[in-house]
Design a protein that fits this description.
311 residues; mainly alpha; 11 helices
């Protein structure tokens, strides 16, 4: 974002009502704390428990790290803004926030597609699963997710760095985001708006196609299992991931379905806030509460800590 006369921006947030701001602060503080606690717990368990050294939990560990990065790129700054009343953010800090929130957000979709492919191999190709999903392949897939996210981000980012901000410096959002910034720019923004939409649609289509194809094959394979218990166990393994996929894609499609509709600005700000706060908090609980191995690993870790403390 090229600087014209504007050197700082003012984040308008969600509301000016002090009581509502207090409620929002408490809500965000609780969700952020739970998000950090839940995701850090999953990361810790995958490191310390030998039963969680499989590719499935390797991807889950990296997804939890991504969720922490995603929520931390925006929520702490908004909490600070509410607590101090300081809504001013510098030009460079705003640019960095846009970069990290968008990078983590885009990478998350590629990570979900990768996790879907992992489940496809585990259920549809069980005899070849260990051979295909080696540690080296898992690391390559994780790096590829981040690189894909960066490649998708480069075109709109390169255009955004040339935007000028001449008069208005008030961002109608709780954080720096592409569309509110485009709205107050005094540059020609049509090309950037179209680029953002194209990149978003391509990302959604590519990753969602991978997810749908993977789960179509998974469902087809599961229905062929002779035992009802086998089918139940297989569906249970995939259900947590499908819930997270539904939440992530559903909210994102809602945001980008009609990004220029002014009457939906307030609604989209609330939905964006939920994406940054509630989704990262829910995901670890969705995975752990529906996963017996993770629950067992957590109980064993608590027992070891209690035993160590009693000595």
């Amino acid at each position: 974002m090229r600087n014209g006369t504007v050197r700082k921006f003012i984040l308008l947030g969600l509301t000016d009502d002090p009581e509502l701001q207090g409620l929002i602060f408490i809500f965000l503080f609780l969700t952020y704390t739970l998000s950090l606690t839940g995701n850090l717990t999953i990361i810790t368990l995958t490191f310390v428990d030998s039963h969680l050294k499989t590719p499935m939990y390797f991807f889950l560990k990296n997804f939890s790290f991504l969720e922490i990065s995603f929520t931390s790129s925006c929520i702490p700054r908004y909490l600070y803004s509410i607590a101090t009343g300081d809504r001013v953010i510098t030009y460079n800090a705003c640019a960095l926030q846009v970069f990290f929130t968008d990078l983590c957000g885009v990478t998350e979709f590629f990570m979900l597609a990768t996790m879907s492919y992992d489940r496809y191999l585990a259920i549809c190709k069980p005899l070849h699963y260990v051979t295909i999903m080696s540690k080296r392949v898992c690391r390559i897939l994780i790096i590829s997710c981040w690189m894909a996210g960066l490649c998708v981000l480069i075109p709109p980012l390169s255009l955004g760095l040339n935007l000028k901000f001449c008069d208005s410096n008030k961002i109608d959002h709780f954080g720096c985001d592409a569309f509110p910034l485009v709205k107050i720019s005094c540059s020609e923004t049509w090309l950037m708006e179209q680029t953002v939409i194209i990149c978003a649609v391509l990302t959604l289509n590519m990753t969602l196609t991978c997810v749908v194809l993977s789960y179509a094959c998974i469902v087809k394979t599961i229905l062929r299992f002779p035992s009802a218990q086998q089918r139940k166990k297989a569906f249970s393994t995939c259900s947590s991931h499908m819930i997270v996929v539904s939440i992530t894609y559903g909210t994102c499609i809602f945001i980008y379905m009609n990004p220029t509709a002014k009457e939906e600005v307030a609604i989209k700000k609330v939905v964006s806030l939920l994406i940054f706060s509630v989704s990262p908090m829910l995901n670890p609980f969705i995975y752990t509460l529906r996963n017996n191995q993770v629950k067992k690993a957590f109980k064993d870790s608590v027992k070891r800590i209690a035993l160590f403390s009693s000595k």
